[in-house]
Specification:
Structural class: alpha+beta
Strand order of the largest sheet: 2-1-3-4
Number of strands: 4
InterPro entries: CHP03085, DinB/YfiT-like, Maleyloyr_isom
Strand content: 5-15%
Radius of gyration: 17 Å
Largest sheet: 4 strands, mixed
Helix content: 40-55%
Protein name: TIGR03085 family metal-binding protein
């Protein structure tokens, strides 16, 4: 049975392929080639991927990622499509779902929404609920650097507190949009915001996400 992570992986590969290696993305300073290299290194080079979260390994990560970015773009796309090597922990379906569903969804939107003619994706209700579940579980982590109180709210009224504090900004939108907002893509997320003017301005420029 196909998993959400597998579907998002293939969609990301298709979007990267269609955009070409030099297209802009929502990841600051990264073009599509850089984003593709990041995805491959994260899955295939555990010795360097730790630099995503550990400052001590940052230089190694940047060096290895640059080496992969120098490879033929078509090779990077194929490595993303085929997935991690057999011995990689990401090859386990449960870990793949847990670690890659959100990762690939966000990066697919990083590619899609950086293009001038992008259109919003229609998510099926089951997948929307999966994204909301992940957003609820990681809300505090994603919103930990918010300069104001931050509440994420679905149109049906379900809420998640991403950051405690005052004044409070409430962000309302569909699960995928809330996830993108909380992951630092505030400009690209289609959401409605409620709060005082100063709080909205501070949140707009905040470095949210991991």
């Amino acid at each position: 049975m196909s998993t959400h992570a597998k579907r998002e992986r293939l969609l990301l590969a298709d979007l990267l392929e269609a955009a070409g290696p030099e297209a802009l993305t929502l990841c600051n300073g990264w073009k599509t080639r850089d984003l593709a290299a990041h995805v491959v290194v994260r899955e295939r080079r555990a010795d360097a991927a730790g630099g995503i979260v550990l400052g001590a390994l940052k230089n190694r990560l940047e060096r290895v990622q640059a080496e992969f970015a120098a490879k033929p773009y078509e090779e990077l796309i194929q490595l993303i499509r085929t997935g991690p090597p057999r011995m990689s922990p990401f090859g386990l379906k449960q870990l793949d779902e847990a670690a890659n569903t959100v990762e690939f969804f966000i990066h697919a939107e990083d590619v899609r929404r950086a293009q001038p003619d992008w259109s919003q994706r229609d998510l099926d209700p089951v997948f929307a609920d999966v994204l909301w579940s992940r957003t609820e579980k990681t809300a505090r982590m994603l919103g930990r650097r918010a300069p104001v109180g931050l509440v994420l709210r679905r149109p049906d009224g379900q809420t998640a507190v991403a950051h405690k504090g005052t004044p409070v900004v409430t962000v309302t939108g569909e699960p995928g949009e809330l996830l993108l907002f909380a992951a630092g893509r505030q400009d690209a997320a289609r959401v409605e915001l409620e709060g005082d003017k100063d709080a909205l301005a501070r949140l707009h420029t905040a470095e949210l996400g991991l």
